[in-house]
């Protein structure tokens, strides 16, 4: 799955990535917008920056995100 800047996403599950922290469990179910998909690397394991509604901007593993239909 390729993420692009401006796409609406949902944090739909806990990530299997080692960068997932316990505090991030509170973000499951929240929606946000991709602000930096790190497309220069185009690495599916790279963290991408997501602005979550009322929770700020966070670097999230890609496997916990899914794209929402517009």
Write the layout of secondary structure elements.
Layout: E1 8-11, E2 31-36, E3 48-52, E4 56-60, E5 65-67
Antiparallel strand pairs: 1-2, 1-5, 2-3, 3-4
Q: State the total count of DSSP E strands.
A: 5
- The total count of helices amounts to 0
Coarse shape = globular
* Biggest sheet statistics: 5 strands, antiparallel
Share of helix, binned: under 10%
Beta-strand level of the residues, as a percent range? 25-35%
Question: What is the strand arrangement across the widest sheet?
Answer: 4-3-2-1-5
Rg over alpha carbons: 11 Å
Descriptive account of the structure:
The protein is mostly beta strands and 70 residues long. The protein has strands at 8-11, 31-36, 48-52, 56-60, 65-67. A 5-stranded antiparallel β-sheet has the order 4-3-2-1-5, with no helix packed on it. It starts with 7 loop residues before the first strand and ends with a strand. 17% of the residues are buried.
């Amino acid at each position: 799955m390729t993420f692009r800047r401006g796409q609406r996403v949902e944090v739909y599950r806990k990530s299997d990535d080692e960068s997932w922290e316990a505090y991030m469990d509170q973000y499951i179910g929240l929606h946000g917008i991709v602000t930096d998909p790190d497309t220069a690397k185009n690495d599916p394991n790279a963290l991408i920056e997501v602005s979550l509604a009322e929770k700020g901007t966070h670097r999230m593993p890609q496997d916990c995100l899914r794209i929402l239909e517009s």
